[in-house]
Every structure is written in C-alpha cells, then in structure tokens.
Specification:
The protein is mainly beta and 344 residues long. It is built from 1 helix and 26 strands. It has one helix at residues 2-27, and strands spanning 45-52, 59-64, 67-71, 77-81, 88-91, 104-109, 112-117, 122-127, 133-137, 144-151, 154-160, 167-172, 179-181, 198-203, 208-213, 218-223, 228-233, 245-248, 254-257, 265-271, 274-279, 293-299, 305-311, 319-324, 328-333, 336-342. Helix content is 8%, strand content 44%. A hairpin with a 4-residue loop joins strand 15 and strand 16 (218-223).
C-alpha cells in the first residue's frame, strides 16, 4: 500500500519542481537589471468605461468614430460597441470561402470588411450593409499574415515563401490579387519568420509602415512602396532574438521552436507619428512594474524614446491588443474591453 503512495507523492513533487523551474525561467529577465530606465508619465490615463466581452472576441479590428470593432473566432462575424453599454454583432455570409477556418485576420473599414485567409492565400472582401462578398486568390508564394490596410486597393501582408522559408512583406491589390515584393526591409533567414516575428502597423499621418520585433529591440520603418526608411530600437538592450529553432529541409521544409522564445515586446499601436509598444521588461528604476502594464512611446520621425505610460492593471494580466486615438486608449483584455481617457 505504501509503494503507490510513494509514487504519487513523487509525481506530485516532480510536477511542483517542474512548475517552479518554469516559473523561475519565465520571470528571470525581470529578477535582474535589464540595463535601461523608464521615464513614466504619471496619471496619463483615466479609466473611462469598460464592457464584458463575448467569449470568442480575440482582437481589435479597428476603431472609427469611437466605435470599436472586434474580431471573433468565426469568419465574417464582427462584434462592435459604440457606447460601451452593449455589444452588437455584424454578420457577413462568407459563402465564397465555405471552408474558411483559422488562422484568419479581419480588417474593418465600415461598411467594408476584409478577411485574410492565411493558408488559403485568399482575401475576402465583403460589405456589411449589402451583405455581398467576393474572394480573390493572392499572388504570393506562401501563407500570408499580419495584414495592414492602406486603402481599398492596397493592403500589406507578411508572407512566408514556401520554397525558401523567407518571411517578406508584399503589397497586394484586393481587387486583382497581384503582389509587389518589398525592396530591403527583411533579412532572408529561411526561418519562416520566427526570429524576426513581430507586429505590423500603418501610420496614416506619415503614410509609413512600422514593424516591431517581438524577441529583440528592433523597429523597422518603411514606406508604402515597401522600401526601408529607418531602423530604430526600443529602450531595452536585447539586440538579438533569443530564439532556438529546429529546421528540417528533408521533403517539406519546416521550422519549429526548440523551446518557447522570450517575448520582449507585445501588442503595439501607432497614432499621429507616435509608436506605442507594450514592453515585458522591467526598467531598472521601476517600482510599480508588477502593478501596471508599461506602454513605451517613440517618435516615428526620429526613433527617439519620448516616455512611457502605465495601464493600471497587473503586469501579468493578458493584454490581447490595444489601439490609440486622439482621445482614448482602447485596451482588449481576455474578458473585457476598456476605454481609457488620455489626459493630455
């Protein structure tokens, strides 16, 4: 009778030690100094309103005239709220792509909606008012992701070439599907885009695109012809991505992580030539890091760090995405959407 008990106790202890070691590994970068200081603007945000989310709301599609649009887990279904008192639903019958499944990305410019079918290399364009929709095949060499809308005739995506496994940017025409490749923005690493993965944004004021790396401090700024303009960096000192990959080139090429990489930067937003970056690293001078979520701000014209603001939420709370406008910062968490007034 005792032997099974010893085995159970041993397994429980082993599981505890594993969880302890994983937790220690996750928190390690913030147990020591990270080599930078953060300049916090206090009381920059004031929580204005919040609303609970439908269970499958996943990201902010757009904010227009203080109406917030959210992508759902079902293609063609978009949630929206105008007053934060109720959450309404828009539905588009995506009959042109009956097998459209995850992953996909949704962009809303009401009444138009664009749905990027990642693995299908197709773009669905629909209209929520008429209910009409159409799909067009994209002339890109592999799966497409991270779409950014420039106009009804210009959308930029990041594509992984299935032949070379290079991740490059393409500008596509939603009406014809033709694609123009970038000039000199991305490194050709044959890594399926893992090492320099990140978020892609478009600043309407400067008419420039910006790509922020997840695993290093690199910021790339390029024009709408996909030509590199500048390289900047976030305030931390992580110059190289700590990504360990396993690459197989026998038969079908594939790339996988040997171990989960450490994220340096998370969700981002851009407004009026200012870049906003959610950082996961603690500044050497920070006292309230655990009780807040730091958002670092950078000038897109100079790359200069212009200070940070705090979202008044625990740093471990999952911020899915956020978007900045002239008056508000909209933050999407796992179970709620929050509007915060920007105190200028």
């Amino acid at each position: 009778m005792r032997r099974p008990l010893y085995i159970i106790c041993g397994l429980v202890l082993a599981a505890f030690l594993l969880l302890f070691s994983l937790n220690a590994a996750i928190d390690k970068p913030n147990k020591y100094k990270n080599g930078f200081n953060r300049n916090i603007t206090t009381n920059a945000l004031q929580i204005d309103k919040e609303i609970p989310l439908p269970g499958d709301a996943s990201t902010i599609c757009n904010v227009t005239n203080e109406t917030v649009y959210l992508q759902s887990e079902k293609a063609g279904v978009v949630y929206f709220t105008k007053d934060f008192k109720r959450m309404d639903t828009l539905r588009l019958a995506v009959s042109v792509v009956p097998a459209l499944r995850h992953p996909f990305f949704t962009i809303v410019h009401f009444p138009n909606v664009f749905i990027l079918d990642v693995n299908g290399r197709r773009l669905v364009k629909g209209n929520f008012q008429t209910g009409g929709s159409s799909a067009i095949a994209l002339q890109t060499p592999g799966p497409d992701s991270k779409p950014v809308w420039l106009s009804d005739r210009k959308i930029v995506v990041r594509c992984v070439d299935t032949a070379t496994l290079d991740a490059l940017f393409y500008k596509i025409d939603p009406l014809e599907g033709n694609a123009a490749i970038e000039k000199n923005v991305s490194e050709r690493l044959g890594d399926a885009g893992f090492i320099n993965d990140g978020t892609l944004l478009y600043d309407a004021k400067l008419q420039q695109l910006v790509f922020v790396n997840y695993y290093s401090n690199r910021i790339s700024v390029f024009d709408t012809n996909l030509a590199l303009l500048n390289r900047y960096h976030t305030i931390d000192t992580v110059t190289r991505a700590g990504v360990s990959l396993s690459i197989s080139k026998q038969g079908i090429k594939s790339v996988t992580h040997k171990k989960p990489p450490r994220m340096i930067n998370g969700p981002t937003s851009v407004y009026d030539a200012v870049l906003y970056v959610r950082s996961y690293l603690k500044g050497d001078n920070e006292q309230e890091f655990d009780n807040n979520i730091p958002i670092d701000r950078y000038s897109l014209t100079s790359g200069k760090y212009i200070g940070s603001i705090y979202l008044p939420y625990q740093s471990r709370e999952k911020l899915e995405s956020f978007m900045v406008t002239d008056k508000y910062l909209y933050a999407l968490f796992r179970n709620k959407l929050v509007r915060m007034k920007i105190n200028k």
